[in-house]
Amino acid sequence: MATKKAKECYFCVNNLEVDYKDIRTLRKFINFYMKILPGSRTGVCAWHQRKLATAIKRARVMSLLAATHK
Amino acid sequence: MSKTKKTGAGHYEILFIVPNKFTEDEAKKIATKVDAMIVETEGKVTFSEFWGKKKLAYKIKNNEYGYYGLFEFDLEKENLAKIDNNLRLSTEILRHQIVIKKIKTEAELKREEEIRVKIDSKKAKEVKVEKTGVKKDFKEEKTDKTTSVKKAVASKSSGLKELDEKLEGILNADDLI
């Protein structure tokens, strides 16, 4: 039986901070429809998931990220 | 907001968009205006950056492109509203956002460095393991093909269980490496 490997938090493992200006990393955590992916899917820990959600919303305000797909 | 103190110093970050109707030089001048605005209200600019022309993710007031500017500054909390209001009223700026930026204490910086060193050492170890691991697999594959074919031919009648056991034995043997 293939067991699912527990995912590690991207920010904890790489010792990174969540920044709303860093779109390249934020893009990893949104789907095609520009919706924020759940932490259960991306493996981000709860603490960073909260930071991530606010960062994505801030990026949307400044038109760095779109709120919807075209 | 009610819980936060209304006086005292704070560290902030501002990101603003200048519309595309201006040229790049004009946009830079507008950025210096914002800088002056911060200095006027007894602020201290610690970091500034001009990103240049970028495509907006969505149109803002029919602008498809905009110039982004970034400032980091220390300011009294009372004066923050002034800057916010001035930027909101100015016609030269399309949109702006002020964010509280946390200043790291020495203890936090120290801890971060420790973690960084740990991660680096871990990564170095992983790379070593991967290198040796690849070699092992390659050898095992070779031996797998030759030995398993021979044995399969020799003992066709023997059950699959036996074969599996033998294979596992070969794979687990240490003398291969």
Task: Describe the structure in your own words.
Helices cover 40% and strands 0% of the residues of chain A. Chain A is mainly alpha-helical. Chain A has a single domain, classed as 30s Ribosomal Protein S18 (Irregular), CATH 4.10.640.10. With 177 residues, chain B is α+β, with helices and mostly antiparallel strands. Chain B folds into two domains: 95 residues, Ribosomal protein S6/Translation elongation factor EF1B (Alpha-Beta Plaits), CATH 3.30.70; 66 residues. Chain B is built from four helices and four strands. Chain B has a four-stranded antiparallel sheet with strand order 2-3-1-4, covered by helices on one side. In chain B, strand 2 and strand 3 form a beta hairpin. Chain B is elongated. The N and C termini of chain B lie far apart (65 Å). At the A-B interface, helix 4 of A face strand 2, strand 4 and helix 3 of B.
Secondary-structure-based class of chain A equals: mainly alpha
Which architecture of the largest domain in chain B does the CATH hierarchy give at level 2? Answer: 2-Layer Sandwich
Number of helices of chain A: 4
CATH superfamily of the largest domain in chain B: Ribosomal protein S6/Translation elongation factor EF1B
Using only C-alpha atoms, the radius of gyration of chain B works out to 32 Å
> What's the domain count of chain A?
1
The succession of helices and strands of chain B, N to C, reads EHEEHEHH
Which assembly state applies to the chains in this document? heterodimer
Report the portion of residues of chain B in β strands. 25-35%
Spans of chain B with pLDDT under 50 lasting ≥5 residues? Answer: none
Number of strands of chain B: 4
Mean pLDDT of chain A equals 88
Residue-averaged pLDDT of chain B, rounded? 81
CATH C-level class of the largest domain in chain B: Alpha Beta
Kindly report how far apart the N and C termini of chain A lie: 41 Å
Q: Quick one: biggest sheet of chain B?
A: 4 strands, antiparallel
What is the name of the CATH architecture of chain A?
A: Irregular
